[in-house]
Amino acid sequence: MARRSALKRLIGRSQLRRRVRELAAQIAHDYRGQQPVLVGTLKGSFVFLADLARLVDLPVEIDFIGAASYGQARETSGQVRVYHEPRCELQGRHVILVEDIVDTGLTLEEVRRFLEARGPASLRVCALLMKERAREAGITVDYLGFVVPNDFLVGYGLDCAERYRNLPDVYVLDGEG
Length: 177
Ligand code: IMP
What we know:
binds inosinic acid; six-stranded mixed sheet; 32% strand; globular; Rossmann fold; three-stranded antiparallel sheet; alpha/beta
């Protein structure tokens, strides 16, 4: 029998807005006089990237990389596949990888390796969310929005089987097999 799902708000839109503004200010400060490329991971980072890009006071370029590990399931398959490559020339560029959420860190590791191989002048990572288990495992990023519990989260770009991406807040999803 199908279970009903429940959404519990974890991070509200004004809190997200405030933190994204702070991250944007930090990036603008660190990259003053430069023209970095923001590379968002599809699809989960599209809302975060759109907000970050509009708040960062720099002439940024935008591109995307598509990496998948979860498919329709909530647990990682342990394998990450790059299904969409950035179109920009990244060699010699200052690249900022924009991630929605770091869970096991496998996606980050694979995407980082993929981008490093393009020969950027520098590569930093900006993640909106990092689960507790990733932090405990010693995974680090250069810019981080929030450390979050090891629950399954949706909203603000994050999905469960392609649902909930358009919710303006971040929620913990309970139930729904
Ligand atoms: P990782 O490879 O385990 O770090 O997972 C990273 C990717 O899995 C993210 O970019 C998301 O697309 C997805 N993901 C991880 N945790 C969640 C979650 O709580 N909700 C929705 N997607 C998630």
